Amino acid sequence: MIKEYIYKKFVNNVLSHMKITSDDLFERSKERHLVLGRQLLFLLCNERGMSNVEIQKYLERSDFKIDLPSIAYGIKKAKEIRKQDRDFNTIFTTLNEID
After folding, report:
1. How far from chain centre, in Å, is Cα 74?
2. pLDDT digit string (tens) for 24-44?
3. Which CATH number fits domain 4-95: 3.90.76.10, 1.10.1750.10, 3.40.50.1110, 1.10.3720.10?
4. How far apart are CA 65 and CA 48, in angstroms?
5. pTM of the prediction?
């Protein structure tokens, strides 16, 4: 699990930007802003070359159980939003920066 450091940076970037806690992000909630935060996290990881299985393993370490089709669907939805919404794309680009 080489990319766990990058995953954790992305989690922190999403939490900071959205002004939520990790408990909020990883709770089984269908609230739109929380779902969008998770989808954004999935896309950030995916575009850094992490497989869906890797993403799933990192999420499980955060006590968030999710199946692979849900991760794939989240990535697909985030890509669609990114194409349609310039602001979302700007946010994605900003959160993709890690030190």
Report:
1. 9
2. 999 988 999 999 999 999 999
3. 1.10.1750.10
4. 21
5. 0.93
